[in-house]
Amino acid sequence: MIGLADVPVDVGRDEAQRAAREELADRVYQEAQPGLVERVVDWLADRLADFFGVIDGAPGGAAGLVLFLVLLVVLVVVVRLRTGKVVRRRRVRRAEVFTGPARKAAAHRLAAERARAGGEYAEAVREWFRAIARELEERGVLDERSGRTADELAAEAGALLPGSAAELRAAAVLFDDVHYGGRAATAEGVERLAALDAAVRESRAVAT
């Protein structure tokens, strides 16, 4: 956060905008949503321009410093509240793996292969992760339970398949990011899931 020592006493528009950009470079603002930082900085610059236009010719000094700090504090509070809502919404959207009619692991696997061949990587990610989940249920590694989330599946299966635990966690994150977070899927991500599927089919669960 910006302190009094970081802001020049004689505040000008260039100095104020530079200080605002340094504050808004914080990672929490960058993660809020695309374009948010730019819009906030533009808004702040406009407010400062209005202020300095009003007091043009009058001594700035402490008055300019106080107003700048007030504006910046308001911005910090608003943006952090907005960011908190985004984070909470992402957490809520981590929903269950399966939706719709139940299908066998082979059916999900075939759908994933077709999606990969057609360049539909997001669909391939969804179907391959579901193929892994259904395979684990069909083999009795996991019990068949509706409403299981990707994170829960990775934790439960990882305890029984320690050799694949890290990849299961990564696969769960990828599934959530693509299916619920709107992240663009890649061919590399699809291939990683395909490799995990093959590894899971050949692995043996350990006793817990």
UniProtKB/TrEMBL annotation:
Q: Which InterPro entries does its entry note?
A: TgpA-like_C (IPR025403)
**TM helices/strands, residue ranges:** 61-81
Would I find Membrane among this entry's keywords?
yes
Q: Specify the Protein-glutamine gamma-glutamyltransferase-like C-terminal domain's residue ranges.
A: 129-197
Keyword annotations for this protein, in alphabetical order, are:
Membrane, Transmembrane, Transmembrane helix
Pfam families, alphabetized: DUF4129 (PF13559)
Q: Can you say what this protein is called?
A: Protein-glutamine gamma-glutamyltransferase-like C-terminal domain-containing protein
Originating species: Prauserella flavalba
